[in-house]
Write a structure and sequence with these properties.
D-Maltodextrin-Binding Protein, domain 2, alpha/beta, 2 domains, 12 helices, about 325 residues
């Protein structure tokens, strides 16, 4: 055999072996536990969703998926840790996509990571709807009456939020701009203290996640006026949507959650995770488990569709922040 032919055969063999590497890597994945970073303390919506995903994904993959709570800085500490992790599929982020998207705008230039460049969307899992609620002392029994009251009483309507970049704040700010009303924002560090003061009458209104507000609504301590989804929801079927209660037909604010991986994670690994999480989302028992926590599961998406959803969220909230003038430190 000539040296030329020998070299050519060697090159072909090397190329064939290289082509098999992704398949071999996928066949071996995962061969050790996976870490799912939840960028908030235990007990919140992101943590609850993350633990359901972790338990079921671990069963599907045959490896433990360990929840790692890395709270702080509005979710940015945990997200940054995943963005800088080795892109091998063994470190994932249980992301609060809406909150991360708002913080990408509010903290632009101050974040140590780029949400789109440093992270890859694996799967969008579901969303938690919000509901506009008022203290019973507010003379409004419908959403349109609330809008009229806000307009007619400049500076009188106070509204709570759980943080500058939270969906709760964004929902109320869109209300303020659409109603052309002068209102007073009262920021809190979390939904718990905000709801306590709302029930006590220290503040008068908020747009809160349905799970956080549901008990107080059912107890008659808060009045629910409208949900922030485009269609009515099963948890509050008697409460109309903002879209059907006002001229704001495009109004929609939800807190969306999904799984992300470090940029550069092999496409085969992303596809495997995407498919397995998608199966979880279609399982009736899992859907019911999510719904018990106030989470409405979305139809499974492909990785490109999940990336498009993340891009759209970032663009949407950047526009809202520009229109409302919301600041990170307010």
């Amino acid at each position: 055999m000539s040296a030329h032919r020998f070299l050519r055969r060697g090159l072909c063999a090397a190329l064939a072996a290289a082509a098999l590497l992704p398949a071999l890597a996928l066949a071996a994945y995962p061969d050790k536990p996976i870490r799912l970073v939840v960028p908030y303390p235990p007990g919140g919506a992101t943590d609850v969703i993350g633990r359901i995903v972790a338990q079921r994904l671990g069963t599907a993959l045959g490896q433990q998926v360990l929840v790692d709570n890395r709270g702080g800085a509005g979710g940015n500490i945990g997200a940054d840790a995943v963005a800088k992790a080795k892109p091998d599929g063994y470190t994932l982020l249980m992301g609060a996509i809406t909150s991360h998207s708002t913080m990408a705008k509010l903290e632009k230039g101050r974040l140590a990571y780029d949400l789109q460049k440093d992270l890859t969307a694996v799967q969008v899992v579901g969303y938690v709807p919000l509901v506009f609620v008022v203290h019973p002392s507010v003379p409004a029994t419908s959403f349109q009456q609330l809008v009229s009251y806000a307009k007619a009483n400049p500076g009188k309507l106070t509204y709570a939020s759980s943080g500058a970049g939270a969906p709760q704040r964004m929902a109320a700010e869109i209300f303020r701009i659409n109603a052309a009303a002068e209102m007073i924002h009262v920021p809190y560090k979390g939904s718990g203290p905000a709801m306590t003061d709302l029930v006590g009458g220290q503040v008068l209104m908020t747009a809160e996640t349905v799970p956080a507000a549901l008990q107080q609504i059912k107890a008659g301590k808060l009045r629910a006026l409208a949900v922030t989804t485009q269609q009515r929801i099963s948890m509050l079927p008697e409460v109309p949507t903002v879209a059907e209660s006002s001229p704001w037909k495009d109004y929609e604010v939800t807190s969306t959650f999904g799984v992300l991986a470090p940029a550069g994670t092999p496409a085969e690994v992303v596809a495997r995770l995407n498919a397995e999480i998608g199966k979880i989302m279609q399982d009736p028992a899992a859907k019911e488990q999510f719904l018990q926590q106030g989470v409405y599961v979305l139809a499974p998406q492909t990785p490109p569709q999940a990336a498009d959803r993340l891009k759209a969220e970032i663009a949407k909230w950047a526009r809202v922040i520009d229109q409302t003038g919301v600041k990170a430190d307010e």
